[in-house]
Specification:
The protein is an alpha/beta fold. The chain is built from five helices and eight strands.
Length: 223
């Protein structure tokens, strides 16, 4: 990065465009260098292919630090996408199919791609149409989670299907889950409120009953 920009005397063009806060000025390179020296900073060429080249009068060391920091932040934000493999046989039973379907849903929900394939061993290559049907069913069952990047394709003894996560579907599913949880929470609150109301009513009735009995005893005593 240090050799990526020309600085000060390395800039040998006759004139440059100095970029500032919301404005730019064209001047001779000599004049721009003098301005940089007066401010105790550097003349840095930002866009060498522009006509004239665009420069900034800045602290070069600080500029490099900011550029490295920005590059590091961008690298950290990049999402690493892994490819998870799901293997089938041409005659996979239903239980095994559902088990692998569940794993694929988890992989896709985590943002990973899925490479599903049917492995044909020996004479099982005769069932390649059956393997293709299996992979197409797999893609259809994952429609909410994934989009097809490559339809089933035979490569040697393996038939591959490539799936990529469908972000929109995952978000939609999450929103549905949030709405359901909200409804459940509201229902619980209503149920709790009803129980509290019943408890209050029961307490009032009990107090009323005690009061009646107390009045009756008081009347008997007066008699």
């Amino acid at each position: 990065m240090k050799n990526q920009y020309r600085v000060n005397e390395q800039i040998r063009v006759r004139e440059v465009r100095i970029a500032g806060e919301g404005e730019s000025t064209v001047m001779s390179t000599r004049q721009a260098l003098e301005m940089a020296r007066e401010q105790g900073v550097d003349l840095v060429e930002i866009s060498p292919n522009a006509q004239p080249p665009v420069c900034r009068i800045i602290d070069y060391s600080k500029f490099l630090y900011q550029q490295k920091k920005r590059a590091k932040e961008m690298k950290q934000k990049q999402v690493k996408v892994d490819i998870k493999e799901i293997r089938f046989g041409p005659q996979t039973d239903e239980h095994d199919y559902q088990f692998k379907l569940k794993h694929a849903q988890e992989f896709l929900s985590e943002g990973n791609k899925v490479r599903a394939y049917v492995f044909f061993r020996g004479r099982s290559i005769l069932f390649k149409e059956q393997g293709e049907v299996l992979l197409l069913r797999f893609a259809n069952d994952l429609e909410e989670y994934a989009k097809v990047e490559q339809l089933p394709k035979l490569d040697g003894k393996k038939m591959f299907l490539y799936l990529a996560p469908k972000k929109v579907a995952v978000v939609k599913k999450s929103q549905q889950k949030m709405d359901r949880e909200k409804r459940e929470a509201e229902a619980k609150e209503m149920e709790q409120a009803e129980r509290e109301a019943q408890a209050v009513n029961s307490g009032l009735l009990a107090n009323a009953k005690i009061s009646d009995e107390a009045m009756k005893k008081l009347q008997e005593t007066n008699e």
